[in-house]
## 1
Amino acid sequence: MIERSDTDAAVIGVYAAVVYDVISATNSSPQTTEINAPARARTLMKWVKIGLVQAALFVGIGVAAEPAGKKWRPILGGGLAMILLWFQYVHARDAGLSNGGPPTETVEPAAWTPFAGSSTRPR
């Protein structure tokens, strides 16, 4: 049986927030993903996957750091956040690919050539 304490909800919330913070650091919003999906769906979803791997690392550290009877807390908070975010971004991608709409950026692949040693696009 799971022993509960007054701190369970806070710890679960912390791990959910960690996942949301990592995804925020690696991705645009689901709304931006939807708007720009026709031009960049593959790269947008690549970064969602990278963010989820990073978030899973933090959740794993949390599981290792939690006391024996409390290891479920980071799994519940972080796992639920990861599942919800994955489905938000998949929905955004699919909605953008099926409905289109005006993008927030202009993508001209032929016009872009990287500068020597630079990974950024010219402005």
## 2
Amino acid sequence: MPDFTAVPGSAARIWIDEFELSQQSSGAEFQAELTTESYNIMGQSAVQQYAATPSFSIPHHGYYTGHGATPNLGYFEEALYARLGTTLPVTVTLILGPITYTMFGSWGTQLTIDAPVEGLITMDGNWASPDSIRRGAFVASQAFPTQGLNSTPVDLGAANIANAIVVHAHGFTGAEVVTVAVQTASTVNGSYTPWLTASLTGPKAAVVLGGGAHGQFARALVTLPGGLPTGVNVMAAMLYI
């Protein structure tokens, strides 16, 4: 029998738009629900059924960590509050080691704060989407401090076909453009060719459709604008739609 090794929850990571909130989070879950409806019609003795609209959610738990001098700089409470019931789509990516789950048409539906006298202030949020959830393959999540830096290649297991990329990035302003190119190759030390590219004007998350067949190994190449001495933080994954 295969030797399976359980993966600890501490290996998970979560990005909300341009912010990685992993260091402020105590956990998250991915929930998918598909209900069925029953009905009767003339000429049929058997009960008929059809699948209703699926729903997806990512309950998100963490800690109150204060607030920034400027709103929405990536503090847990600020990130949840700013996206609570918003009409603007929120992009959420939950990283589970080599795989990811991304909701790119979601919104915040919950903000609960628990402030016990003897204990830490904790928070619970929930990200929900009616149908915009995609499973993907993790490519990179790291700081890119210099121009033209590649991430460490990851093994996708086999050559396959993917249809999009998701990119989250922060550490630059709305007047600057950061380009993230996902490249693939057939061998880890082989020749990497561009597979799909995302250009972000200002810190944000983006989903770019396209792609197609790809090699077994992938990496991200990040091109930074001039005048960014500290670089940017970028997360990238290939999505299978």
## 3
Amino acid sequence: MKIGSARRDRAAVSPVMMKAEPATRMLPPRRRLWLAVCLAVMWSESCFVHHRRTPPPGNVANRPLLNASKQELIERIRRAFDPVRSFRMRADMSPAVGKLYGGELTEYATVRAYVLFLRPDDIRVLGLDPVLHSSTIFDMVSTGSEFRVYIPSKNRFVTGDNNAPPSSPKPLENMRPEAFLHSLIVEPPAEGDLTLLEDDTDESKAVYILFMAAGEPGQLHFTRAVYFDRYSLSIVRQKSFDPEGDIVSETDYGDWKPYGEISYPSVITIERPKEGYEVTMRVVEMTVNPPDVTAAKFTLPRPPGTQLTVLK
């Protein structure tokens, strides 16, 4: 199912090849051979890799910057996500593994995913095969502090604590439902959190960053950071940190659309640098607060005969 690896731009090669072909007739045979080899290498790489380009945030013409106080931004989080008591989502999920910051990523085929969410902390993610969308690739559930994952192709059933460290050398096998729980919903600051606001605006970007910190006096540490686009004040990113300050999760939110009575990002990219994977979700359909999403939807019993792995 693997469809690619290190990301580069295929389009940058083709014009060079088209222009170079007539010129080779004027070169000595040895240089023609050298040039042919170089072009062949360039073309072979471009067949398997591509480069993801993102425009610099902040270069938006003829749009004024919007101002907001710290409390106003906290209220925007509450208005966006407090009304969401539950949801049912159908999305296209594109996973990738590798070095997330400044390295190479191997991308896998997009699968059809179904996501159920119920407050306060129940989530279920079901992945179907990328071709017919008829067979289950994985089924994972998190309720409270525990998770369960069923992988039919390996006849494997995994259960354990959400805080259990990664156990597999294969990054995607360390995927847990809790990673989706804390990325698909942005919570306002918890009671007792210290909040700080930074205006990070320069010639290349324009964002507000709302930092949240927790801990005992003298041992405070950042727990999360929520980024707001200063042209729209919409939430564009959320980071979560461990007590040492390392990034646990980084989630980008884009293309907000109305779903019923709320707006929600239709493109969500979840990066997990410690586990070495990222997942991009493109929402196809979403129903907010459906009456049939109840606690009974979040039971995942172990099928008889499956190999059990318990993680603590």
